[in-house]
Amino acid sequence: MSQLVTGAGAVVSVGEGVDEVFAALCAGTSGLGELRGFDPGRYRGRHAYEIDDRPGPGADVPGRATAWLLRAVGEAARQAGLGEDLSGVPVLVGTGLRELRSAELAWCDGTPFDTGARLHFGTALRERFGAVRTHTFAGACSASLYALALGSDLLAAGAEDTVIVAGVDTLTESMYGLLDRVNAEPPDRVRPFDRERRGVLMGDGAAAVVLRREEPGARSGALGRLRAVSMNCDASHVTAPDARGIVRAVHEAQQRAGVTPGDIDLVLLHGTGTQLNDSAEATAIAEVFGPDVTTPRMTAIKSMTGHTSGSSGLVSLIVALKSLTSGRIPPTLGLTDPLPEAKGFRFVRESCGGEPLRFAQIDAFGFGGVNAVAIVERADR
Length: 381
What we know:
There is one protein chain. The mean pLDDT is 94. The strands form two sheets. Strands 1, 2, 5, 6, 7, 8, 9, 10, 11, 12, 13 and 14 form a twelve-stranded mixed β-sheet that branches. Strands 3-4 form a two-stranded antiparallel ribbon. It is globular and about 55 Å long. The two termini are 15 Å apart. It is of the alpha/beta class. It contains eleven helices and 14 strands. β10, α9 and β11 (297-299) form a beta-alpha-beta unit. It has helices spanning 18-26, 64-79, 100-109, 115-118, 122-129, 143-156, 173-182, 243-257, 275-289, 302-305, 312-326; strands at residues 3-12, 15-16, 33-34, 47-48, 91-95, 134-138, 162-169, 205-213, 224-233, 266-268, 297-299, 346-347, 359-366, 370-377.
């Protein structure tokens, strides 16, 4: 049985609220800025895609990821007509690092923070919305699509009629430092699928959707239809992606959705701007789509949002739903010379509109070979 997305919420570096975020992305707005959250003098890199809500440069406060999550969930719930009381609705949250930045502040600066109750998000969701069934899944960069798959399974099994699925992550100093060491040259921006890409820069972000079982007469007002989610863990390498695992995930998602590669009109690529990830994803997409690789439009919004880690899959899914409805597609910034593995890809390099779109594919891949792919459909079909 198909499932409907009836509400959505988003907070990223380019804006807050789904409409504002989508308009900014379609305009080619980048959230890139000088590093603000901690002392840039310790690192070669100087940039990130941060949400600008700190009290000042170099100053930081705990609980920022939680605050974005609550706002995204609230927006999605309001749009879906659920109101403020979510006591009867499960909330599934995918994340890479939970509130690790708050734990860093507590450890390094002595900033008060209750890691026992606040490192996950259940306490805050209960206090704000009365949510009593909350689950936080720490599952690398595909975490929010993993949570989406679990939510979809709850509906398909008849265990629930409605679920809220969310994703959130914030920049942490420890992760920024690790990435700063592994990049041969410090990247000044994210340039997915470009030959001159230097690596990834992280971004802040939260996203949420309300998912409901589709019943007769329930299509009115829906943002789109979730046709399928696939997930696997190829466990090929701790950090390096494996194109074979990605191929299996894409094949399974399309088979579950009952579509062929030629049916896909739009692909929201994972597109991290790293040497290995972009090459592996392009190789896998080329293999799965074969002669149909020139059919779908393709874009990678991390060129504007940075890598929002555990929330990135849902952020892309929400953008895909808005594109299906409006026919508008955000561009991939900084893409001037595509890598050879992406030969024939119809990259969107400048925002375009008026596209007749029905099906979209969303890619999300994480460390350890944690792969997830979703297929969504325009709801007025």
